Amino acid sequence: MAVRTIAAGGGNWNATATWIEGIVPVLGDTVFAAVTSGQLTVNVAAACTSIDFTNYTNTLTMNATLSVGGNVTLVAAMTVTGTGTLSITAAATITSNGKTWSGAMGSTGAFAITLNDSWTIVGTLTLTSASTGAQYNGNSLTIGGGITVYGNGNRSVSGTTTFILNGTGTITSGTNSVIFNNLTFNTTGTITISGTMNFRRGTLTYTAGTMIVTGRLNIQQEATTLNTSGMVWNEVLFSGVTITYTLTSNLNVNTLLLGSTTNQTTINGSTINVTGSIQLLGTSGGLTTGTTTIKITGGTITSSSGMTLRSPLEIAGNVTIASGNTLTYNTGTLTYTSGNVTTTGSTLALTGTATLINMDKIAWNTVTITATATVTMNKFFSGNPKQKTTIQSSAAGTAYTITFQDDFEKTAKFVKTSDCSLTRRGQLLMLTPNSNKGGNSGIRYINQSPNGIAKNAPSIVNTMTSPALGLAADPCFISL
Description:
Elements: E1 3-5, E2 11-12, E3 30-32, E4 40-42, E5 46-48, E6 50-52, E7 59-62, E8 66-68, E9 72-73, E10 79-82, E11 85-88, E12 92-95, E13 104-108, E14 112-115, E15 119-121, E16 125-129, E17 134-138, E18 141-143, E19 147-151, E20 157-158, E21 163-165, E22 169-173, E23 178-179, E24 183-193, E25 196-199, E26 203-213, E27 216-220, E28 225-227, E29 232-239, E30 243-247, E31 251-259, E32 264-269, E33 272-280, E34 287-289, E35 294-303, E36 308-309, E37 313-321, E38 326-329, E39 333-338, E40 341-342, E41 347-350, E42 354-357, E43 366-369, E44 374-377, E45 389-393, E46 400-404, E47 410-412, E48 415-417, E49 420-422, E50 428-430, E51 443-445, E52 464-465, E53 478-479
Parallel strand pairs: 1-3, 2-4, 3-6, 4-7, 5-8, 6-9, 7-10, 8-11, 9-12, 11-13, 12-14, 13-16, 14-17, 15-18, 16-19, 17-20, 18-21, 19-22, 21-24, 22-24, 23-25, 24-26, 25-27, 26-28, 27-29, 28-30, 29-31, 30-32, 31-33, 32-34, 33-35, 34-36, 35-37, 36-38, 37-39, 37-40, 38-41, 39-42, 41-43, 42-44, ...
């Protein structure tokens, strides 16, 4: 390895007079700048093994790409101008000493780059790697342009370095290219994401800036943290096998896609606000769970036959449950807040313990409840004159149990209920003619003929008797 020193007169990279040794540097050489070295212009595509500008006080002008196969050291006293690219082609330690790189930066290959201190570049960061991917470790890298990631497999770029986008640029990803590093949007400019951005393992943060997002954010396979409440994503996909994702602020998205296979995807933390649609894509017993509330304010909910949703779900707008689809739900709390909900041709399948709030405001088409399941409600299901709701056991003849949250009397209209068992007998009043399909326990039928009793059905099964002392709680029926 030879040392090539910039001469006092400086000049273009490809001129022999620019170098004290009279030889133009090539890969394998170290480029050294002395205190007396003149300006250097990279006027052609150039290469060397390392750069040491520790003592430089002059100007480096970047008009072309400079490929460095090793360490790079800048210094605060020097000046860097031009838009040329600094391309790192091998494992290296890079030190800025507070100097901003005026052009772009990139790396080609699967190796580790250590940032000895914080780096700032004005242009775009371009990352090209093989399946094992490049690593950026150490201090932060502030990027004035965008990020372009090309590579194969699941290790396109990783490491401990946080990438900070503080200018105007675009995030572009190749097929299966993934960003594993922490990534922060904190800009007075505009960041554009038009294609698919694959992000895993790190923390994705929005602080400031205009975001134009027409593509998809894929969060999959590894634990990831999102903190992006100040922006709106077009599409976000969560998927993976036994993976936990964390939201430290609300996630705002037009289309939410949830996919899992035989194990669960867990999302914990703040609320996901959905304005367009929820698509449940899992198969083979996949499920999504966690503490995060998914709140949909408009659009459509579609579900594959193998997917179960266990996260809290709030419907707060005009929402359609896709016809022919079964929304399978258990464990969490399903809440209606506002809006018109269209359920024509769909089924709500409650496959385990669940809490339901304000279900009287949704005219469900069909509700199936797994036998032996206990469902807690504040109100019972109610249909409407145009759509009578059928509530039935998943196994005909085997009862499920309904528990109400308080002791007040409930009413239900336009429903057909079978195999229902109440924990508090007599608390539910059915007002719809012919609502009884049999197998019910503890339901009172009124407003029917003759004498307010459903035809061929007692008003209540297993009547209660008056307590020996004190008053009977309302509501109840007393057998004297």
